[in-house]
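User: Run a structure prediction on this.
Assistant: Running it now.
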Amino acid sequence: MIYLDYQATTPLAPESREAMLPWLDRFGNPHSPHRLGREAAAVVDIAASDVATALGDQEGRGRLIFTSGATEAANWAMQGAIGSNKRRKLVIIATEHACVLDTARSMGLHGNDLVVLPVLPNGIVDMNQAADAIDEETALVAAMLVNNEIGVIQPVEALASLAHAAGARFFCDAVQGFGRIDVPLHACDLVAISGHKLHGPQGIGALWLREGLAWPPLIHGGGQQQGLRSGTLSPMLCAGFGAAARLARSRRAQDAAHVAHLADLAEQLLSGWTINGDRCARYRGNLNIRRDGIDANRLISEVRDVAFSAGSACASGSGRPSHVLQAIGLSESDARSSIRLGFGRYTTQEEIERGAALIAAAAHRQLEWA
């Protein structure tokens, strides 16, 4: 199987697996005071430091709290923005991940004011409308760094400046960008990241909170993690996440060069397709393309030796066209003719060549039979 769905999840790094294996048998609770507990706690602390460093916080400008994943982190960041805050307005972008969109919509049903900013045809937020929407009533502005469906990079720093000028907090979903491009941590109050999008294990993520930011817990219980997120941590998952983050930091330039080469090759081999989203302001390991007359779901079914998608894994099977592709102005027909190819560190040139050939051949058959 040729795996070209890196935005859904990434292959586990061998180094991450190696870091995790000892903790299958070492069962100490990292919150216990005895030796086994202290050993587990040390692994958790090292992992937190490695993840924070890879995120860009070498000076300890914030607190990194492990979560079950980015969805929990996003829910926590957004719901915590209201709490006892007298401000009740949330400003998000139309192309946000479902964990942000659905959380915001839910909050909108409970007396909060929700503003969803449109994007331009290239997928970049309309900054004029953002400037009009972000005002003294705004509690939180949320923006994804790299879009999970089309790879577009949003002007996070500019949005954060608008938020802070209005006295609002700024939350960044950095899941798809973490370890690949710079996360403008200096501009953010809260940042969500995930382990399995970085060649780490599934089931773990983190929320980074700027130092001095008081934030209410989302999960209550034993008061673990500085009283901010209760629950027993898994040293195994933390170790795997930490190793993956450490590796991403050391390999970042090498990984970026490899991805750029693969992207050039894929675009060349699929030159008859149109790229969705901005061609320049994007992470190149995400290639979302369309071709008139193609049924993407049928294509995925026919090309059984290649794993790729028609959009977000979180929305697959819903039967609805992608909200991201609709937001950039594509027709329903265009959206249903779009596929997403995701590749990265462990993708080979031969896999891109073979995968592109299989996709191109199946697309040709569809067009011939139409």
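The chain is about 40% helix and 15% strand.
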